[in-house]
Design goal:
Its cofactor is pyridoxal 5'-phosphate. Belongs to the class-III pyridoxal-phosphate-dependent aminotransferase family. GO terms for molecular function: transaminase activity. This is Aspartate aminotransferase family protein. InterPro entries: Aminotrans_3, Aminotrans_3_PPA_site, Class-III_PLP-dep_AT, PyrdxlP-dep_Trfase, PyrdxlP-dep_Trfase_major, PyrdxlP-dep_Trfase_small. The structure is a single chain. The longest helix has 22 residues. Strands 4-10-9-8-7-5-6 form a seven-stranded mixed sheet, sandwiched between helices. It has a four-stranded mixed sheet with strand order 1-2-3-13. It folds into two domains: 246 residues, Aspartate Aminotransferase, domain 2 (3-Layer(aba) Sandwich), CATH 3.40.640; 140 residues, Aspartate Aminotransferase, domain 1 (Alpha-Beta Complex). The chain has 18 helices and 15 strands. Helix content is 44%, strand content 15%. A hairpin with a 4-residue loop joins strand 2 and strand 3. The protein is α/β, with parallel strands linked by helices. The protein starts with a helix and ends with a helix.
Length: 464
C-alpha cells in the first residue's frame, strides 16, 4: 500500500501548530501567532503562496533565497522524477556518480579561474568544508570574517558569524577566528600582515542588512589576500546563482576568489545541496594521497536527487534568462524605492543589486514622528520594521521580513521569476504602508501599541 503523503498533509493540516508546539519548537509557533503569520499556508506555486482560504500572497522571502526559481517549478520536479524512475545506483560510496561530475563541470563554466568542486548538503556545510580546506591548504589556522556577517549556525560557521542572539549559550566556539569591520581595507591589511591567516571569508553583499561594499573593497581584499598568502573565500550562498543580476555577485567587482560557496537556490527548492568551488591546488592539498581520498566528505553529498536538482536549476536559470530578469526588475524596484524614500522621512536608505534589496528605516526629522519612533524602538530595537512588515502581510498579502535580529532593514529576496505585475503589487503596497506609518496617530501606530504591550508582557513573564 502506497503512503499518500498529500492526503496525510490534508488530514493533519489543522493540527500543524499544535504538532509543532508539542514535538518541535513551541517558540516558533508563538512568533507566528504574535505577528499574525499563522494563516496556514497550504500551497505554493512560483512566486506565490496560498493559505487555507486560498488567498494568494506574494513571497518576498523565498525561503531565505532557496526558492529563486519559485516554488514547485515543473522542470525541477520533472528532473527529480526521472531520477526516481531511473532506478539509478545512488550513493554506492565505492563508486562515483556521473551526475556529480556533470554538475561540477557546469558550475565551473561561469568561473573558469576555479577548477574543482566539493559537494555538501547545505550552505553551512560548505562553510565548514572551506574552513578545513583553507587550513589544510595553507598550513595556517586563523580565519578572518566580517562584523555583521552571517555564515551559518554549525560550529565553524557560527564562529565566523557575528550575532549574539545566535551565539549565546553555545560557546566556546572555534578558536582562532577574528572578526573585522566590513568594508575596511586597513583593518584587513593589519590582520593579514601577521601571515597567520588561512582565509578571509566574506559575503560580497552582506545578507544581514543588505550591506554593499564600496567599489574598491573586494578588489582591494583580493589584492591583500594575494599579498599575504591568505585565501579569499566568497560566501555566495545567498548572493550566487543570479540573485544580484550576475551569476556570482563577485562579478560586479571583477574579483576572482580562491573559493566560492553556493547553496540555497542550487537546490531548486527541493533537495538540499551545497557546493565549494575551489582552485585546483587547494583540493589537491586536501586530497593529496590515496589514503586521504575520504578525509572529508558527507554521506548524502553528491546524491543523485541533489545533483539532478542542481542541473535542472542551472538549466532553468539559463533557459528563462532569470539573471537578466533579476537585473531588469531589480533596477525597476530600486528606482521605485528610491522615489518612495524621497517622500518619506522614515526611509533612511535603499540599497541592493538585482533582486536582493534592502529598505532601511531610521528616526525621522519631525518631532512628532521621532517621538513615535523612539516609543517603539525603546522597547525593542528593530520593532519599527514589524510595523511595516505586518501590515504588508495582513493588508497587502506580501510576505517580507527584517534582514536580521535588531535590524532596521527590511530585505527583499523574491524569486527571480518575478514579473511586472508583481512589481506593481510590491510598489503599491510598500508606498501605502510607509505612507500610513507617517500618520500619527493611525492604524500602524495602533499596531505598534499592541506589539509594545505584548513585548512588555513577554519581558515581565521571562524567568530570571
Amino acid at each position: 500500500m502506497t503512503l499518500d503523503i498529500a492526503s496525510l498533509y490534508t488530514e493533519r493540516e489543522a493540527e500543524r501548530y499544535t504538532l509543532h508546539s508539542c514535538y518541535l519548537n513551541e517558540q516558533m509557533v508563538r512568533v507566528l501567532e504574535t505577528l499574525g503569520y499563522d494563516v496556514g499556508f497550504r500551497r505554493g506555486q512560483g512566486a506565490y503562496l496560498f493559505d487555507k482560504n486560498d488567498v494568494r500572497y506574494l513571497d518576498l522571502l523565498s525561503g531565505w533565497g532557496v526558492f529563486a526559481l519559485g516554488r514547485n517549478h515543473p522542470a525541477i520536479r520533472d528532473a527529480l522524477k526521472t531520477v526516481l524512475d531511473g532506478d539509478l545506483p545512488n550513493l554506492v560510496q565505492l563508486d562515483v556518480s556521473p551526475l556529480a561530475g556533470v554538475l561540477a563541470e557546469r558550475l565551473l563554466q561561469p568561473a573558469p579561474y576555479l577548477q574543482k568542486v566539493f559537494f555538501a548538503n547545505s550552505g553551512a556545510e560548505a562553510v565548514e568544508a572551506a574552513i578545513k580546506f583553507a587550513r589544510a591548504a595553507t598550513g595556517r589556522t586563523r580565519i578572518v570574517s566580517c562584523g555583521q556577517a552571517f555564515h551559518g549556525l554549525t560550529y565553524g560557521a557560527l564562529s565566523l558569524t557575528e550575532d549574539d542572539i545566535f551565539q549565546a549559550g553555545f560557546g566556546p566556539l572555534l578558536p582562532d577566528c577574528v572578526k573585522l569591520p566590513f568594508n575596511d581595507l586597513d583593518a584587513l591589511d593589519r590582520a593579514l600582515s601577521s601571515k597567520q591567516v588561512a582565509a578571509f571569508f566574506v559575503e560580497p553583499i552582506q545578507g544581514k542588512g543588505v550591506n554593499i561594499p564600496s567599489d574598491d573593497y573586494l578588489p582591494g581584499a583580493a589584492t591583500l589576500c594575494k599579498k599575504h598568502g591568505t585565501l579569499l573565500v566568497a560566501d555566495e550562498v545567498q548572493t550566487g546563482l543570479g540573485r544580484t543580476g550576475k551569476f556570482l555577485a563577485v562579478e560586479h567587482w571583477h574579483v576572482e576568489p580562491d573559493m566560492v560557496l553556493l547553496a540555497k537556490a542550487l537546490s531548486g527548492g527541493h533537495v538540499p545541496i551545497g557546493a565549494v568551488l575551489a582552485r585546483e591546488w587547494i583540493l589537491n592539498k586536501v586530497f593529496n594521497r590515496m589514503d586521504r581520498a575520504v578525509v572529508h566528505g558527507s554521506t548524502f553529498s553528491k546524491n543523485d536527487l541533489a545533483m539532478a536538482a542542481g542541473l535542472a536549476t542551472l538549466e532553468v536559470i539559463k533557459r528563462e534568462r532569470l539573471i537578466e530578469n533579476a537585473q531588469r526588475l531589480g533596477d525597476r524596484l530600486l528606482g521605485a524605492f528610491h522615489e518612495i524614500a524621497r517622500h518619506h522621512e522614515f526611509v533612511r536608505s535603499v540599497r541592493g543589486k538585482g533582486l536582493m534589496i534592502g529598505i532601511e528605516f531610521g528616526p525621522p526629522r519631525s518631532l512628532k514622528l521621532r517621538a513615535a519612533w523612539t516609543m517603539v524602538e525603546t522597547v525593542r530595537t528593530g520593532l519599527f520594521c514589524q510595523l511595516i512588515a505586518v501590515p504588508l502581510f495582513k493588508d497587502h498579502k506580501i510576505l517580507a521580513q527584517v534582514a536580521g535580529h535588531g535590524s532596521h532593514t527590511i530585505k527583499l529576496l523574491p524569486p527571480l521569476t518575478l514579473n511586472e505585475a508583481d512589481c506593481n503589487w510590491i510598489e503599491t503596497a510598500f508606498d501605502t504602508v510607509i505612507t500610513d506609518s507617517h500618520q500619527v496617530p493611525g492604524a500602524v501606530w495602533s499596531l505598534g501599541k499592541t506589539m509594545i504591550d505584548h513585548a512588555m508582557r513577554m519581558h515581565v513573564g521571562r524567568p530570571p
